[in-house]
Design a protein that fits this description.
By secondary structure, the protein is an alpha/beta fold. It has helices at residues 32-57, 71-78, 94-100, 104-111, 135-149, 168-179, 199-202, 227-242, 272-281, 284-294, 300-322, 329-332, 343-361, and strands spanning 2-5, 11-14, 86-88, 156-161, 184-190, 193-194, 197-198, 218-223, 248-253. The strands form three sheets. Strands 3-4-5-9-8 form a five-stranded parallel β-sheet, with helices on both faces. Strands 1-2 form a two-stranded antiparallel sheet. A two-stranded antiparallel ribbon has the order 6-7. A hairpin with a 2-residue loop joins β6 (193-194) and β7 (197-198). It binds thiamine diphosphate. Thiamine diphosphate is lined by residues 92, 131-133, 160-164, 191, 193-195, 260.
Length: 362
């Protein structure tokens, strides 16, 4: 692994250079077949992201937070987890969530505001994408603490953006996790902006990873557009957590290629020159493709086939999401808040439904 310096001169680990050549050793469990699998997921995810943006433009989807440019950070990190681990993502982690097993129609229903997306399938140890910035870091700490108290093998991993690291919740989570040596990995996708606020206006330290020092935990800064380096860093952190070594903070330096959400116009705050550099020379999918092509594991026909398969799967998901029955707006508010409704919530529900009825009949 070599050290790469980003624009802000912060050293980050890198295994695969932007031109697809190796500058470090591949982890032993990453052979060509596994890297092709990562590549196909990254391509599928980008295709999904583009389709979601188009659906939004057609008025068929609500607010959507695109992740294009961040596929390596997400696939590489989620790939180091086991199915039994607990995942606490933000709204930006859709690529990772799909990889972890989220049915794509659920991701679409989430952006349609359908309450059914507020409940994950039972077999997935994952929460819906958190919108309250950094709140999920605390939830992950709770799950990791439970796992430790019960003597379980599973760890917790939480995912968030650079802006989240300036929230109080984040610092409370890291402190608690470190004091109790909990099996949790904090994974930050530093995509350079918190909406329109650049990292340089959001924190005085030069790197997110540096923040780990204050909690006496390891902070790793990694090239977030290098799926191999991301995987290696996450593997190390996951293994440490699982073996009782406590928490780790990983910063994956990456770039959000699109707007913050469909409600944002990034041309108002982004430097066009830097934007071009990220898109043209640092794209994570291009990097892996160049590597696979040089290995003879990628060609045009394979790409066309994978894109076709991705599009078919996405079309089916759109069909399923759009044919899903609309919720009963009044009732649905109270679904999925708790497994079993508390008496207070039941009272609230009854009075709300009565008020709704009166309104409807007025
Ligand atoms: C507690 C809280 N404060 C403010 C907001 C409004 N908000 C939504 S996204 C966002 C920026 C988050 O940036 P970052 O953590 O870098 O994640 P990114 O969106 O870049 O993935 C803010 C401030 C919120 N959702 N929650």
């Amino acid at each position: 692994m070599r050290t790469y310096r980003w624009d802000n001169d912060v050293p980050a680990h890198q295994v695969m250079a932007p031109d697809g050549t190796l500058v470090g050793a591949l982890p032993q469990d990453l052979d060509d077949a596994r890297l092709v699998e990562f590549y196909r997921w990254m391509v599928f995810a980008r295709r999904f992201d583009q389709r979601a943006l188009n659906l939004h433009r057609q008025g068929r989807l609500g607010t959507y937070a695109p992740f294009a440019g961040q596929e390596a950070a997400q696939i590489g990190s989620f790939a180091a987890l086991e199915k039994d681990d607990w995942v606490f993502p933000s709204y930006r982690e859709v690529a990772g969530m799909l990889f972890f097993g989220l049915p794509p129609e659920m991701a679409l229903l989430f952006s349609k505001g359908h309450p059914v997306a507020g409940r994950m399938p039972d077999e997935l140890n994952m929460l819906p994408g958190q919108i309250i910035i950094a709140a999920q870091t605390l939830h992950a700490v709770g799950a990791a603490w439970a796992s430790k108290l019960r003597g379980e093998r599973r760890i917790a991993a939480t995912f968030f953006g650079d802006g989240a690291t300036s929230e109080g919740d984040f610092h409370e989570a890291l402190n608690f996790a470190s004091v109790f040596r909990l099996p949790v990995v904090f994974f930050c996708q530093n995509n350079q902006y918190a909406i329109s606020v650049p990292v340089s206006r959001q924190m005085a330290v030069r790197s997110v990873a540096q923040r780990a020092l204050a909690y006496d935990m390891e902070g790793i800064c990694v090239d977030g557009n290098d799926v191999v380096a991301v995987y290696a860093a996450m593997r190390r952190a996951v293994d440490r957590a699982r073996s009782g070594g406590g928490p780790t903070l990983i910063e994956a330096v990456t770039y959000r290629q699109g707007p913050h959400t469909t409600a944002d116009d990034p041309r108002r705050y982004r430097d066009p020159e830097a934007h071009r550099t990220w898109l043209e020379t640092r794209d994570p999918i291009r990097r892996l493709r160049l590597y696979l092509e040089a290995r003879g594991a990628w060609d045009e026909q394979a790409e066309e086939r994978w894109l076709r398969e991705a599009d078919e799967r996405i079309a089916q998901a759109v069909e399923r999401a759009e044919s899903h029955p609309a919720p009963d707006a009044a009732e649905a508010l109270f679904d999925h808040v708790y497994g079993t409704r508390t008496p207070d919530l039941e009272d609230e529900r009854r009075s709300w439904l009565a008020a709704w009825e009166r309104g409807a009949n007025a």
